[in-house]
Amino acid sequence: VGFQLFTRKTDYNSARNYAAVTGNSSLSAAQSSLTQNYNQSSTGLNFSVSYPIRRTFKRIGLTYSWDRSNITTFSQASANLFQTLAFRSGQIQGPNALEGIYTSMASLSYSYDKTGPSVFKPRFGTALSAALQVAGIWGNVRYFEPVVQYKHYMAVKGLRPSADGRNVIAFRIQASYIQGFSGDVAPPFSRFYSGGDNELRGFDVRMATPYAFIPDRKSVV
Fold first, then answer.
1. 78 burial level (CB within 10 Å; 0-12, 13-18, 19+)
2. What is the C-alpha separation between 80 and 86, in angstroms, rounded?
3. Could you tell me the end-to-end alpha-carbon distance of the chain, in angstroms, rounded to an integer?
4. Is 175 helix (H, G, I), strand (E, B) or coil?
């Protein structure tokens, strides 16, 4: 059984990240307007219960969460991004559609984990997890999202499987789908994004997305 209260704020500022990497912070106002710069603030709670299936490596769980989120944009590129997404759902309409997004969600999960010898440093085995998340019990957004993830670890010596090998080959496959219902759509931050060293190198955090602001002309005064 678990219970959590949280408040968090996440900044997505490409110009600041660029300055941190290159040491060059002298972007012009025009250049800054072409980079993504927005933040998301959230406050909420969740309550979860899980139960191990006796004498197996399987576990089932149920989680309920409540979340209030706001998105604030600070650049023209970000304003254009969310305008393109055209988020209008249920009671959320008009120019303030990115404020006061209430998500009430229940999630049913199943997991199978037969990896070892430790949770933090697995060297062999397989882990499988699946969850069905449904938002719309209360709140002002309605959507469902099934998620399935498969992980496998194999100790190797050279390129051959070996229990006493010093290296480990591992891979992860994850599949998910999200869809609104009752005339609603999923909020922007619940949709699929990728990027960053832990997910997709070569892209900034959450910058690998079907939507992007790409300037195609410039004016010289």
1. buried
2. 10
3. 63
4. strand
Q: Is 73 within 8 Å of 38 (Cβ atoms)? A: yes
Which residues have C-beta within 8 Å of that of residue 20, sequence separation ≥ 6? none
Nearest one of 16, 15, 71 to 40, comparing CA atoms: 71
On whether the CB atoms of residues 45 and 65 are closer than 8 A, the answer is yes
Q: Which has the closest alpha carbon to 13: 69, 77, 68?
A: 77
Report pTM: 0.76
Flag the least confident range among 22-36, 44-58, 181-195, 206-220: 206-220
Q: Is the pLDDT of residue 94 over 60?
A: no
Where b means 16+ CB within 10 Å and e means fewer, 39-63 reads ebebebebeeeeeeeeeeeeeebeb
Tokens 């670890």 appear where? 153
C-alpha 42/C-alpha 79 separation (Å) is 19
- How many residues are present in the chain? 221
Place of tokens 């149920």: 62
